[in-house]
Amino acid sequence: MFVIITYDVSESRVNKVRKVLKKYLIWTQNSVFEGVITEAKLYKCLSEVNKIMDKREDSLYIYKVENPQNLSKDVLGICKNPEDMFL
Amino acid sequence: MFVIITYDVSESRVNKVRKVLKKYLIWTQNSVFEGVITEAKLYKCLSEVNKIMDKREDSLYIYKVENPQNLSKDVLGICKNPEDMFL
Questions:
Q1: Distance of residue B75 Cα from the nearest chain A Cα, in angstroms
Q2: Which segments of B1-87 does DSSP mark as H helices, in order?
Q3: A29 with A82: CB under 8 angstroms?
Q4: A76: how many CB neighbours lie within 10 A of its CB?
Q5: Which of B57, B71, B76 is closest, CB to CB, to A60?
Q6: How many CB atoms are closer than 10 A to CB B81?
Q7: CB under 8 Å to A40, separation ≥6 — which residues?
Q8: DSSP states of chain A as a string?
C-alpha cells in the first residue's frame, strides 16, 4: 500500500512527530511524508504518532492507495528533500 | 479524477497560490488542497499557479488518483477547515 501523510502539528511537537514518521516513510516536503508501507507497520507508526499529538490541536491526514499503480505524482517547482535540512 | 495538492511556497507568494487553488479544490489542511477535478480544469489551475510560483524556491506536489474508489483517507486529531481561517 502507498500512503501520503500530511500534518499540521504545533511547533512544540512537530519534530517528535517527524522523527516517528521518518522511521517508516520518506519525507518529501515540509509537511508531507510518503511511501510504501504494510498495514501492520502503518498501524504501528500511527500508534506512536498518536502518543505525541495533541488531538485537540494537531491534525494528521493519512491518504491510502492500495495499488500504487492507481496513483501518479507530478511536481511543479523544486523537488525538495527535507531530509537534507535537519533532524 | 481525485487530486491531492501539497505545497511549500514562500510566505510572500503563498496567499496568491492558495487563492488560485481555492477556485478549483477544497482546502483541507494548512498546506493541502484536495478534490475531484477534470484533467482540463487541473491543467488550467496549474497554469495559473505556475505564473505565481518561483520554481527555484517553491514546490507543489500533485498526487492524482484516476478512480477515487482506490483512495481512502483517515484523520488523526482534528479535521481542520482552513476555509474558516482566512482568505
A1: 5
A2: 11-24, 39-52
A3: yes
A4: 17
A5: B76
A6: 11
A7: none
A8: -EEEEEEE--HHHHHHHHHHHHHHSEEEETTEEEEE--HHHHHHHHHHHHHH--TTT-EEEEEEESSGGGEEEEEEE----GGGT--
Smallest CA–CA distance from A7 into chain B, residue: B29
Kindly provide the ipTM of the predicted complex, given to two decimals.
Answer: 0.87
Q: How many residues does chain B have?
A: 87
Q: Record the cell numbers describing residue B38, joined without a space.
A: 477534470
Q: Is the pLDDT of residue A79 over 90?
A: no
pLDDT at A84: 54
Partner A contacted by B30 (CB < 8 A)? yes
Identity (one letter) of the amino acid at A71?
Answer: L
In this model, does residue B86 exceed pLDDT 70? Answer: no
State how far the Cα of B17 lies from the Cα of B14, in Å rounded to an integer: 5
Q: Do B61 and A32 touch (CB under 8 A)?
A: yes
Partner residue facing A65 (CB), from B7, B28, B65 = B65
